[in-house]
Amino acid sequence: MYLTQPLHKALRECPTRTATVFAGRRHTYAQFADRVARLAAGLRALGMQPGDRVGMLSLNSDRYLEYLYAVLWGGGVINPVNIRWSAQEVAYSLDDCDTRILLVDDAFSAYLPDLRAESRSLRTTVYAGDDETPDGMHGYEALVGDHAPMDDAMRHDDDLAGIFYTGGTTGLPKGVMLSHRNLYSDALGTLAAGYRQPAVVGLHAAPLFHVGGIGLTVQLAARLATHVVIPQFTPEGVLEAVSAEGVGETFLVPTMLKRVVEHRSFSDFDTDSLGCVLYGAAPIDSTLLDRATRALPNADFIQLYGMTELSPVATLLPAWCHKPEGRKAGKLLSAGKPVSTAELRIVDPEGRDVETGTVGEIAVRGPTVMQGYWNKPEQTEAALRDGWMHTGDAGYMDADGFLYVVDRLKDMVISGGENVYSVEVENAILKLPQVSACAVIGIPDEDLGERVHAAIVLKEGASLDFETLSRHCRSLIAGYKCPRSMELRDELPLSAAGKLLKFKLREPYWNARERQVS
Amino acid sequence: MYLTQPLHKALRECPTRTATVFAGRRHTYAQFADRVARLAAGLRALGMQPGDRVGMLSLNSDRYLEYLYAVLWGGGVINPVNIRWSAQEVAYSLDDCDTRILLVDDAFSAYLPDLRAESRSLRTTVYAGDDETPDGMHGYEALVGDHAPMDDAMRHDDDLAGIFYTGGTTGLPKGVMLSHRNLYSDALGTLAAGYRQPAVVGLHAAPLFHVGGIGLTVQLAARLATHVVIPQFTPEGVLEAVSAEGVGETFLVPTMLKRVVEHRSFSDFDTDSLGCVLYGAAPIDSTLLDRATRALPNADFIQLYGMTELSPVATLLPAWCHKPEGRKAGKLLSAGKPVSTAELRIVDPEGRDVETGTVGEIAVRGPTVMQGYWNKPEQTEAALRDGWMHTGDAGYMDADGFLYVVDRLKDMVISGGENVYSVEVENAILKLPQVSACAVIGIPDEDLGERVHAAIVLKEGASLDFETLSRHCRSLIAGYKCPRSMELRDELPLSAAGKLLKFKLREPYWNARERQVS
To answer: Does the distance separating the beta carbons of A193 and B198 come in below 8 Å?
Structure first.
């Protein structure tokens, strides 16, 4: 299995089909493959040897896709950099895996002096913006234009394809090593789970540096689809792209979907083409689903659950579970069923299978399980045991084989000796009509060890007092699970990939004190 | 990638789902996995070591599926034996790859004395029938019952999974070596090509020893589907199984499909559940498709083209090409587009790509390409060049990326120095309302080297003279392609997999004389 296979296929099957669309630029598959093979040669000329890491620090663009494929084509290993990180964090990840070449766009050129000062590894920078190439950098278009296309290095199977830094939410980032087989198996397994159209126009609205963006890229490429790219998520950007390019498929997190379907100009755009909305990072609540279904009547909604270490998909909640008869089956709060490539079990702390319906740690085995963490044998050994990736997520499986993710294990609140899964509390709070979003965390409590605390974002113009919240929750869930305190906020802290960053909510309460991880 | 993964998944996701249905016997996935793990232990007790080949000579049954998975679970390599072969041919294939253990059902027990006499390798036989175990054989149910379930040997990826003997139509059979990754990639790539339902009841009507039967098995297993098995194809057997078990998906060759939909009791059966008919070995003609569409209005028709050496699928003709708007696009005579896992090119005898629309040899690269022919380095080298499997099939690709298979290269007729592709002539002949089936071959001709000859099966009660045939063909195709002679036959010789055996038609004309292969 080789991730470059779709380019070879497209050259023979559909060379004139549009491969990338970005900001008015369009390239056919023949042009895309040619640019990829030239850029690969250019990167080789800059010193990239087989297996060498090459980074990119950039908003989404067609060049981001060219970078991904050019590094692989030239035999290198991609290291897509988290655009939300500080220069210090980026430097750590570059140095950790000895990334010497970095591509940077206009949005991040200003970081370069700091980055050069912080990083020991960084030697060569490529300017992937549209202005004149700054001094001391190589020009992207010159690299493409000045080099003849090289042959595909044909790395494959267990050859390393990418290092994806993750875990910035707790401790030092870890470099997740994914092979060609890992990422390609993921796309095939996810597509094989069914319900998908063969050839589509796909939209990259979520960040391409994130493994979800890479996953969508490989899934689209496996169908020789057209990649429409916007620099970063905005509801207008999504609506304009869908309407202008007839986008059939995209990936959003629920908060993004909400902003799209609630956008005041929504009805000015033609969104009939949108046949499939993949979403992840969180389940979709009924209110949002109702609204989204009315707004996008042609769209199938499909949830994907996974993590970087799983390349990334483990389970898929199919479209029918989002439709009236499926919703009656009550699977909407689940993360769906394991895809063909994922064997999934729920284990207790000793690694034994728990009973159906019992909460434990989610563990996954199969061809998408990462090779390990770069240069971190101990953490690799802790996560990978007998081929099983221990996800650190808590969940249970119902009798129909549907997975329910109840929490990150580290997000579980232990209050008065009882385990409280924040998702259950959040679902109760979300039923209040005043609430737009919420997050439940544990904060220090002298009596209980931790107490349940709710951070809440209200709808415009709404108000909520603690008494109302408390009464509402007690009507739905056990007393020990109900919030003992609350804070009202303008917004919740989200990662670039749209994941809620609970550690940021916890920080002010726990200070420098190390929180005990259960 | 490990072919046993679906069993592990089913044990956790759907242990009570029906795994196999055969002749009134039903086993859940929990029972099936238990029997597989016990049979694996039994085979180990009979001497099967990791990597050892184990054969089965049997009609289809639930035990055939248990055999396939038990050998893999126990770390062995399957060698499913062609049930149409003579004892001598079977012995050749057993001895070629040193197969010492053979499972045999009632239908083939009578062959055993001859087989034992012919084969040097064969040591241990297992009786997989339902009567009393004959002397000198081990009983299948005793092997299952007497052994505790063993742990999965977890062979995977490049580990050899099966040896499939092929090529009996010309020269000595060759053992095609397929790995766990080959067969699993094939299923994922074929499913990823879209249009398929996630969980189904599948019917094995075509022989399980054939790679097409194995391919369907892996595709169904990847979706944790129910396998309904009939001993061998009969139209009544298919109709009864579909109606009794609510079969959603099956694989047939067009001649089988024809017999099903033309069956006089067709309307007595409820076939509404049949949502997907996969077919292969030959394109479907419009007359049959019309008839089948009327008979099975809920069914999508999907053509698969491939060969054993490709695990086996290379291209897929999607359902829409079989529907009115797709048929207008004129792709019905094509074999479809390459699946995600298959990179396909058309090459000239020097291995260079030919122009779009030009006939050449079909070559395929990707994760489904076999590891080679067992113990045949020269033939392996001839077939596999730079990772490309040279199929020996002639075809061309149109501008939309659809493949048209015009002939086996060795079936091409060279008449008066012109290449005549028999498929083109056959398609012309099939337009005659009198004709039920036909095959075109080259036979010796003093002037032309070879001349075009048609073997024709007429519809019941129809008649046809050569003058009518000749006039009809000349109105459709060039003169040099038209048959110079014809024979009327009651039926055409077919292989167990439903493939036309042209060498049997050629035999009487070419006698012992070695036909020059172009």
So the answer is: yes
pLDDT, tens only, A311-327? 999 999 999 999 988 88
Which helix (DSSP H) or strand (DSSP E) does residue A439 occupy? strand A435-445
C-alpha–C-alpha distance, residues A10 and A30, integer Å: 8
Q: What distance in Å separates residue A220's CA from the closest CA in chain B?
A: 11
- State the CB neighbour count (10 A cutoff) for residue B516: 10
Distance of alpha carbon B77 from alpha carbon B99, whole angstroms: 9
- In contact, A404 and A468? CB cutoff 8 Å: no
Q: Do A195 and B198 touch (CB under 8 A)?
A: yes
Which residues in chain B have Cβ-Cβ distances shorter than 8 Å to A345?
Answer: 12
pLDDT at B511: 58
For tokens 């202008």, what's the residue?
A244
- All domains of chain A, ordered by start, with CATH? 5-302 (3.40.50.12780), 413-510 (3.30.300.30)
Contact at 8 Å (CB) between A215 and A187? Answer: yes
pLDDT of residue B497: 66
Chain A 343-372, CB below 8 Å of chain B: which residues? 343-345, 353, 365-367
> How would residue A448 be classed by pLDDT, with cut points 50, 70 and 90?
confident
Contact assignment for B194 to A193 by CB distance below 8 Å? no
d(CA A2, CA A311): 15
Is B185's CB within 8 Å of A188's CB?
yes
**B192–A5 C-beta distance less than 8 A:** no
pLDDT tens digits, A193-228: 876 777 689 999 999 999 999 999 999 999 999 999
B314 interface with A at CB cutoff 8 Å: no
In sign, the C-alpha dihedral spanning A21, A22, A27, A33 is negative
Provide the 10 A C-beta neighbour count for residue B468. Answer: 12
Q: Do B5 and A318 touch (CB under 8 A)?
A: no
Whether residue B8 lies within 8 A of chain A, CB to CB, comes out as yes
Q: Tell me the two tokens of residue A470.
A: 């408390």
Mean pLDDT by 10 residues, chain B (518 residues): 97 96 97 98 98 98 98 98 87 96 95 93 96 95 98 97 79 90 96 78 95 95 97 97 97 91 96 94 83 95 95 95 86 91 94 92 97 95 94 92 83 80 87 93 85 94 94 89 94 79 82 40
Please give the residue of chain A at the shortest CA–CA distance from B158: A157
For A487-497, write each residue's pLDDT tens digit. 999 999 887 66
For the segment A87-102, the average pLDDT, to the nearest whole number, is 94
Give the residue on A whose Cα is nearest the Cα of B219: A192
Residue B177 phi, psi (nearest 5): -95, 115
CB contact under 8 A, B344 and A195: no
Interface pTM (ipTM) of the complex? 0.84
Q: Return the residue of B nearest to A154 by Cα.
A: B387
Q: Does the bond joining A324 to the residue before it have cis omega, within 30 degrees of 0?
A: no
The whole-angstrom distance between B193's CA and the closest CA on chain A is 6
Place of tokens 């008449």: B415
Distance of CA B173 to the CA centre of its chain: 16
Q: Is A338 on the interface with B (CB under 8 A)?
A: yes
B321 touches chain A (CB under 8 A): no
